[in-house]
């Protein structure tokens, strides 16, 4: 079976279930008594419709990008620098890897992960990590491999001088995806030609430079929405401070607008040192907020560590504009951020850390959705890997992580944060994490990075169809 069949089958399965429902409903009025009993002749009869198992698919972010071709020319063309390492997991028999083709604007060589269907629809998961050092592109980047969707919030990026932010739009389906980019900055909504009606061909990726729509803005948020084919969107940001490399990272999609957001893993390391020198204003750690509604939001930011320490920061976020909340004088460590707001918001965090070679690296950390009781993931190899858990529920959780025959259980109290080292390049099965939010962080000589652990993909289940 080809790797692209799964996406089509998933659409067909849902469409088939709907079609069956229509047919059953149309004929069931006259057949109700036949399915009922003599004692209950008026009781509607029903039938259980079981969807056909479908392949599972997720798309990884791909490799680091530079705006030039292989010869260093053509600044409209994105080309890869090095290659990312991808780790995969599945509840099925195997994970097939393939590539999406680049468009005329280039591509990051994103990996399409496919777990072929068996008796049931499997789960598939993965992540990528890359340490890169090439000219002014230096740093570490990590990202989750994500489900195709019609809506993604990318909280991050900048178009100030020396900052390059590239939105990657990956379409793993067999139909065209028509994408609209709603871009917001510190002054409001960006109005620019070309932000709507972006066509991404089937099984391809398109790279869109943010500077084509907004210039000299230090704080951006992008809402990616698509019709037709579904999209996996990431953002890559590269920083050059005058002539000094300032880092590289990937922005994964964050949680949808909500009055409560959790950023489960944020690395603070040498923040004060990273702000020394010229052109370092954006090296300060911040939490970035955006209110997509029409009313101001009063926001409380809870900051906690695994050792029980914590504090709160209060802020106000105006509607329709991007707000950066500065985080000063925090000691080095791995933190979780919990945002509580009077209005739905999206949130992300940016920090900067010195590297062993005398440069610095930036890290973007996305908000995450709560996990279910059972979830799988895989952590790509990198330096200083830890998994961070945040328990926003009212009950304590005993979370078990299994890898092969190895098993470890960690207690996460209600409202608390916990962190633990995990194996890389191996499948991890997480159980007992209902309602818990998780993220992976990296901290090493080459830089900092992180990504959210994704919940299990929602799959079609048997449904009872009534007339």
TrEMBL record:
Signal peptide: 1-34
PROSITE patterns associated with the record: TAT
Top-level taxon of the source organism: Bacteria
Residue span of region Disordered: 67-132
Polar residues composition bias: residue spans: 96-107, 120-132
Biased composition (Low complexity): 75-95
Keywords: Signal
Pfam families xrefs: DUF5719
The protein, known as: DUF5719 family protein
